[in-house]
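Box 3.1 — From sequence to structure: D-alanyl-D-alanine carboxypeptidase
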Amino acid sequence: MTVTRNTVHNGLFPFAFQAAETAGERSAWRLTRTLFALGALVVAGLAGAGLGAAEAEAAKAASIIMDARTGEVLHEQDADAIAHPASLTKMMTLYLTFDALEDGRLSLDQSLPVSSWAESMSPTKLGLRAGSSLKVENAILGLVTKSANDAAVVLAEALGGTESRFAEMMTRKARELGMRHTVYRNASGLPNMEQVTTARDYAILSRALMSDHAKYYPYFSRRNFVYGGRTLPNHNRLMSRYEGMDGIKTGYTVASGFNLAASAVRDGRRLVGVVLGGKSPVSRDNRMAALLDQAFGKPNRGREDGALVASAERLSKEEPDAEGDDEDEEDDTAAKVGPKRATVQLASLATAATAKAAGKAAEKWGIQVGAFATRAAGQKALTQANKQAPFLLRGAKTAVLETKNGKDTVYRARMVGMDEKTARKACSELNRHGLRCVAVSPGEKL
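Predicted structure (token representation):
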């Protein structure tokens, strides 16, 4: 028998999912044993088919891009392959929280009790203590930015009585929304072999969050959250460098790989995308950016559209070895590994006059803090960047460069005249404050 990637996804994984669906009649250890046996069969089959390590890794990846309004699928790869959601789970926890806010079972300023079970959550959390309380809005922001597992349990217990009963509510809601292959066992996404989903199911949930809870969806674009005297940044780093992106959620466990559900608006059109099983946060983000760029370009073949901001591609050689929630591990990876190489490509060329005027300044590294519809907006972004990192940017020259993006005019806000180290450090500082920034190399065309 020849084992291919399709054999794995269409044959073995649906069987594993069926086992998860009937888990109520079986003990957890029998299900776990079954899944591990299936995993061994998959590995053996791939080896027997002569697939290399890279192809075996590719067999775990899944992605999908949908039009948010119509549901049209613009791209899909293994979109129905069974995977683990990790912290994308919190999207459903928030969906049910928004349901409760809409029908009056909760209010944003309501204080919820913190149990000892909530306090015990790890590794990513707000640090809540049993016997204390947490306001509903702070719990929402804790999930969106810090991906706080303790806050997820606080919401789950408030709505379901216990986290396990809330997980049953989550699974029922998934079925109502059309998420046919999703099963929840907890509210946070911490490792559980029975907690499974697909890329297609999470694209459905992404659309549902926007259509059913448009009032609350803006929470997902929150750049940071101050709690307990600490500023907690949103760990969806792609929001800082992909124009039009305003959410939604990242996730990571060892079993899941690096996951991302995202949404972006360009020229009045909104797309949602899901990537499951990335090898690193950087490669996952780059994959998402490339897929969205491609999908946005599909209806406009022949036009010189392209992205409104630079897209940075970085190579990462390590991934975290800790299991649990994704966000802190991603931060540590970025800090310890750093980019091995960076290339920045701009979708549009500047006019000849602008390029000539900026040519001398571009002989050194610089940063771009966004692309805007007006020159005034670009200048405002530069002023804000200067306020956030005045020491690093004190010697830089500011420039708002007028470029053509098809029939439209775009104004790129840049600071130039610094070395590579300073440019990258400045972007890191600005991203930390929730501002867009990407480093620009000396040889890059404007």
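Summary of the box: The first strand starts at residue 62 and ends at 67.
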